[in-house]
Amino acid sequence: MYEKKVSTANPGLIVSILDGSCSTQDCLPGTTDAVATWIERFEGIILMELLTRSTAMQGEQATIKPRYYNTFILYGSQPDIWGEDIMDIETTARKFKDSNHSFGLGNLGRTDTKTAFEKAYSILQNAVTDDRFKESFPPMLFHLTDGRSDTDADPVADKIKQLSTSDGSTLVVNAYIGAKTNLAYQGPEDFPGYTTEDEAGPSDDNIRLYNMSSEMPEAIYQNLVSDGIFPALRQNARLFFDVRTKEMLKHVIQVVGSIGSRADRTER
After folding, report:
1. pLDDT bracket for residue 28 (50, 70, 90)
2. What average pLDDT is seen over the chain?
3. Is residue 6 part of a domain?
4. Burial 196-231 (b: 16+ CB within 10 A, else e)
5. Is the pTM higher than 0.90?
6. What span, in angstroms and rounded, lies between the C-alpha atoms of 266 and 58?
7. What is the pLDDT of residues 62-86, one digit of tens each?
8. What is the pLDDT of residue 263?
9. How many helices (H) and strands (E) does the chain have?
10. Helix (H, G, I), strand (E, B) or coil at 58
11. pLDDT above 70 as % of the chain
12. Which listed site, 7, 158, 191, 204, has its alpha carbon 20 to 30 Å from 183?
């Protein structure tokens, strides 16, 4: 399981849930930029990476192939779809450029994470039976947040993790844009991954994010370690990350690269 390569015949689906609540106007500790700004940077880097992997040269002309599709759910007091429910990577990149590389985060009210995950569930429930994705590497849901929430999305996250394609169950990744956890490490080189609630704490919100996250499949673990992204990673870690440094921000996005979709692992 979790061995399917991304291709035009079996494309990957990346669902991003972006926290745009008012609390994300606060600065990321140790920086002068708002959490909302970091979330947008994070997504911009992911999009550029996916676009690069979807670009093929035919002579001197670049062609963008639909190897990846994207869904974006922006939320605060309520969830909203950015663009269309599911967009191919070329459409996504064009819209992001036309939007001045911004999703307009930071002023969307309170933080109702539960309804955002419910919106994602309704989209994913259809996607896993869609002819485009049903034989593909399962969808990956990326939730980028400052960790604070007024509602509990854990039960809905469990329902999402029960959805599957022929290659495995949908994977839920939570990226906490902050540094307040009990796990001690310096950077990507010694990041061991989160394996217990105590490591994810002391915040109840962070413990909830940890429990919402999928257990890391062996295939992703092997790729992250062998590629030197997180060489100290433990096998039983969850797909839960804190982004306390720029270096961690750059490395966490490589989780997307661990689905068998880099240049040397991509079926054309």
Report:
1. confident
2. 90
3. no
4. ebebbbebebbbbbbebbbbbbebbbebbbeeebbe
5. yes
6. 17
7. 889 999 999 999 999 999 999 999 9
8. 47
9. 8, 11
10. strand
11. 97
12. 158
3-state SS, one letter per residue, for 109-176: CCCCHHHHHHHHHHHHHHHCCCCCCCCCCCCEEEEEECCCCCCCCHHHHHHHHCCEECCEECEEEEEE
What amino acid occupies position 22? C
Q: How many CA atoms lie within 13 A of 225 on its CB side?
A: 15
Find the domain containing 247 and state its range.
12-260
For residue 2, give Cα distances in angstroms to 43, 52, 169, 170.
Answer: 23, 22, 8, 10
pLDDT at 138: 96
Is residue 21, in this structure, part of any structural domain at all?
A: yes
Q: Domain holding 43: CATH number?
A: 3.40.50.410
264 falls in which pLDDT band (50, 70, 90)?
very low
**107 within domain boundaries:** yes
